[in-house]
Write a structure and sequence with these properties.
Blueprint: E1 5-11, H1 17-28, E2 33-35, E3 44-51, E4 66-74, H2 98-105, E5 110-114, E6 123-124, E7 127-128, H3 129-134, E8 144-157, E9 160-167, H4 173-184, E10 188-198, E11 201-202, H5 209-217, E12 237-239, H6 242-249, E13 254-255, E14 264-269, E15 273-282, E16 285-291
Parallel strand pairs: 3-10, 12-14
Antiparallel strand pairs: 1-3, 2-3, 4-9, 4-10, 5-8, 6-7, 8-9, 10-11, 13-16, 14-15, 15-16
Length: 293
């Protein structure tokens, strides 16, 4: 039987998102695992994993907002826009005030056109940009429309500043750091990054790989799983009868006791088994669109 579940991992530094998926796959014995938003190796924090049939929920998270905290090093720009890269020139003197940094960050808030880093997974004629950049080939990426809901600079000590940002899907925080350095005229790169929120998942619900390994070894994985009723909280939940669940298994429309006018509902068998996501046909008649059983 597949393990149909959602688990929030606190990704360690130095691991790729793929590394984490592979590790959890071995720990829990579930082959089908996906994640809801890549984190660079340098970054830590919230990496939600969907397991088993719940990988079909990934489509509902493609535009999820994310929140980060981290540090930016002023005075040095790098080719990767972060601390893993090579400096693009000699260090520049950092003689800016906190208020000057905040003023430079202000135009980077709101809907902006952002140029992705050359060392990124963005594809150029089908080839990831980072593969071209590693070969010192020219990387010509196009700006992308993103939304920066918040970019707060909280502290400045010497060349290091602390920040918090809330951004739309597709935003590169590395590019925010690089662009801030460009605006200040002294260069900058992302020194550290921790993701604290993805959609409804936050760092308080995240578990380390060590905690997951211990729970798996003690047959206590259920204690670490994100309750299905809390997934996609903007979509109302309904509990179906056994008869209706039988119809859903065969892709047939069912009448559900749903009183709001939401175009979607989450259908449960009992309290914890998410059966499907169904779309409204008319009135209380719903068609199962994403069946999870």
């Amino acid at each position: 039987m597949p393990l149909n579940a959602v688990m929030v991992v606190d990704k360690p530094a130095g691991w790729t998102s793929h590394d984490v998926v592979a590790r959890v796959r071995r720990l829990v014995g579930e082959r089908s695992i996906g994640h809801l938003g890549t984190l660079d190796p340098l970054a830590t924090g919230v990496l939600p994993l969907v397991l088993g049939h719940l990988t079909r929920l990934c489509q509902f998270y493609s535009a999820s907002e994310k929140t980060y905290e981290g540090t930016i090093c002023l005075g040095i720009a790098t080719d990767t826009y972060d601390a893993d890269g090579e400096p693009l020139g000699p260090p520049q003197a950092v003689k800016v005030s906190l208020e000057e940094v905040r003023q430079a960050a202000s135009p980077l808030i709101g809907p902006i056109q952002q140029l992705p880093p050359p060392f990124s997974a963005k594809k150029i004629h089908g080839v990831p940009a980072y593969k071209l950049a590693r070969k010192k080939q020219e990387v010509e990426l196009q700006p992308v429309q993103v939304e920066v809901g918040e970019f707060t600079i909280s502290n400045l000590q010497g060349e290091m500043l602390e920040f918090r940002c809330r951004v739309s899907s597709g935003t590169y925080v590395r590019s925010l750091a690089h662009d801030l350095g460009q605006r200040l005229g002294i260069g900058a790169h992302l020194a550290s990054l921790r993701r604290t929120v993805v959609a409804e998942f936050d760092i308080e619900q995240a578990h380390t790989l060590e905690e997951i390994a211990e729970a798996a070894g003690n047959s206590r994985l259920d204690d670490l799983l994100f309750h299905p009723r809390r997934v996609l909280p903007h979509i109302p939940s309904v509990t179906a009868t056994d008869e209706d669940i039988g119809k859903i298994r065969h892709g047939r429309a069912v009448n559900l006791p749903e009183l709001s006018r939401s175009p979607w509902v989450k259908v449960f068998a009992g309290q914890a088994e998410l059966v499907c996501l169904a779309s409204r046909v008319a009135g209380t008649l719903f068609h199962p669109k994403v069946v999870l059983i």
